[in-house]
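tool_log.txt
---
The assistant was asked to compare two proteins side by side. It first ran the structure predictor on the initial sequence, then on the second. Raw inputs and outputs are pasted verbatim so the downstream comparison step can read them without reformatting.
(1)
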Amino acid sequence: MSAEQHLDALTKVVLNNVENQHDWTHIQVHTQPDLPRPLIYGLPPKRLYVHPDEQIAMIKAEKDRDAPIPQTPEFEWVLPLHLAEKWSLSQFAAVFDALDAVPPGRLPEDGEEGDDEVNPDADWKAWRGSKRRKRILLATVQNDSTVTYYYIHDGLTKPRQN
């Protein structure tokens, strides 16, 4: 199997997994010349990541509002890798350098939830949309096609609070 066929098969396994096992929508395969391999982006059915500082700001804001802050999902980057592959920090850095923080996906107007209508200048919005730091969901495929997901971030990131 050639390297290109391997990457195509790996991408298809992960794409199938996020679409059929995890119910993602608006899924696209993303290629560009400065990327070492195709990436996937799409919209998960619920929000996958909340920055720890955003979590604190949201708790404070919810106390003031007496209502929960909407947790609308965000488009996410996915990098398919096989468990046997060995990647260096410079390879991950090259991927981060080639990508924008937010994938190019956009919901249709009638499908968007309007949490922008809820105080667009709120402190907790400082970690969403174009203001968010770069992150990638690493999809590690094992020989039996099991896929395990891990977040990797560009730079240092504070650990989440549980």
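(2)
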Amino acid sequence: MPTVLIVEDERDIREVLRRYLERAGLSVLTTASGAEALRLLASADLVLLDLGLPDIDGTDLLREIHLLKGPPVIVLTARSTTEDRIRGLELGADDYVTKPFSPHEVVLRVQAVLHRLNGETLDGTPTSYGHHRLRIDETSHRAWLDDKLLELTPTEWGLLSAIAAAPGRVYSRYELVNRVRGYEYAGYERTIDSHIKNLRRKLGAAGADVIETVLGVGYRLGLPRDEVQ
């Protein structure tokens, strides 16, 4: 049973989220403290993180979780501008929920992230692209570029896997939202660019060549799929 860690200083919100998540069959840990959240991190499969914590700024905690290669993080916050959302994603958040929110929507987003992290996989060997420069293994949700294992968040993995499904095909931001999220989310379309930026950064100097931008349309994989020998 996956465990969700709720880091939220408002008790009523913690309790409502706990009840909804437990009804969905998930194990739940809760805390109002950023310092305690770091101690509980090893026991969590996913973190719901409020940015307005009393002891540690939530963005600092988000950065620390990312540096520790901790579990995926869904941010819960009243900071609702596009700039705030993009900053959160750049710091490593896998999703971003603004207050007030529907607890049911939060459960759906948690389930979507956990599904991408632990969902069913395909049989077979890694698929390679660009004369074996890029390799993607759907069975283990791992990818390599130039034989270097890429440390990807669930959303970054989902984007790379979606784009690689049809090399050369252009995917609009709207298509990528639905392929990666598994449901429509009004407003998320604008933040796909931030996830692509993070993914390209992890791809290194070749990032813009591996994932190409088609102005006014969207993104495509810039490497052809290698023929199976």
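---
observation on (2): The first helix runs from residue 11 to 23. Residues 31 and 115 are 24 Å apart (CA to CA).
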